[in-house]
Amino acid sequence: MLKVFASLLLTASIVGCASAPVQEPTSLQVQSFQTKEFEASKAIVFGAALSILQDQGYIVESADKETGFITAASPSTNKTGFWEAMGGVASHGRTKVTAFVEEIRPGFTTVRLNLVNTKQKSGAYGQSSQLDTPILDPNVYKIAFDKLEDAVFVRSGTRT
């Protein structure tokens, strides 16, 4: 009976450890969910993108209408976990975003967003490290583009 129980336990532990590997999206897949086309001028889309970033609490670090490039970051938050605190490590982080707004033909503009979570750790003895993790969840970009689409719609209606 003990052998049967041990055999079942061993089988369950082996099966429990086996899982499908997480497949990273290809660069083409990433580009497809990070990019959206709008039927509006570059000026309207660029202004809407800046407005949405500020509405979401991001701090705009740079914005150049001519190149269409925007950089922004969320306010820094405490990300210290229990075990980090027990080891004398403090962590903080933020989300950084870049946007590239490009008029592809008159009246049509594309926006490519790139979101990255950052986590910076510092130890009691002066050690520090930073971990940057790209956000690769298509739903996050869909939500961002839905908000941008609403802002473009409002701005398009107020401009003649």
Walk me through the structure.
The protein is built from five helices and seven strands. It has a single domain (26-158), classed as TATA-Binding Protein (2-Layer Sandwich), CATH 3.30.310. The chain has 160 residues and is an alpha+beta fold. It is elongated. Strand 5 (89-105) and strand 6 (108-123) form a beta hairpin. The longest helix is centred in the last third of the chain and has 21 residues, at 138-158. Strands 1, 2, 3, 4, 5, 6 and 7 form a seven-stranded antiparallel β-sheet that branches.
Give a quick rundown of the structure.
With 160 residues, this protein is an alpha+beta fold. Helix content is 40%, strand content 36%. It has one domain: TATA-Binding Protein (2-Layer Sandwich), CATH 3.30.310.
